2-oxoadipate dioxygenase/decarboxylase (Rhodococcus erythropolis), 206 residues
Amino acid sequence: MLDIDELYRRMTERGITMIDRIQGPPRWSGPPLLLRQTSFRALAEDRLFRQHDGSVTTEPVRVRFGEVEARGIALTRSGRAIYDRLIATPEDADWDSEFPHSESELDAAGLAYFTYRNEGTVVVRDPIVYEDFLPASAAGIFASNLDSVTGFVSDAPGAEYGQDRLEGAIDRTIEDPFELYRAQQEASRAVLPPAHNNRGLPSEPA
């Protein structure tokens, strides 16, 4: 598995300007959760701009950047609620006391999604990889690539683009990601031999 902390350190040592920090959950003693991502800072590239008086000037813009992701275990609604609470107050967050330190404990507590398979007399659990984005982390990536002189305003009013409006625009139903992970987990349960189906497995997560 990618060690994103080591990658960040080595790229910095090579003189590559990185964004100020790795976005997402912090490094901790338990299994990797959700998504951690970072990038090198977008390159300042000169572009031509035509001004109101017709003159043409050259100004630097930051557009292209490289992003690296390290994906972890998909959390259930209960697990995600803990994550959202911790990430909202990072200075006070104690990840080691809020989350169990092993995959089996996360599973037993109903905090993460897993698939199950039978190997002889043993049921083996495999973590389901988180395949979505974290809004705060994605925003952090883009915000870190802005220059302070751009006039970025974090509390500027924005248009309301809810799920209903997006579904109307694409003419498709947007699936609930928690339900997709849950269905994947339950499908793996369904093919276990009857004698193993409920042996040591947690109840359906919230």
About this structure: Strands lie at 35-39, 44-50, 56-62, 67-71, 114-119, 122-127. The chain has one domain: 4-146+175-190. The longest helix spans residues 177-190. The chain has a mean pLDDT of 85.
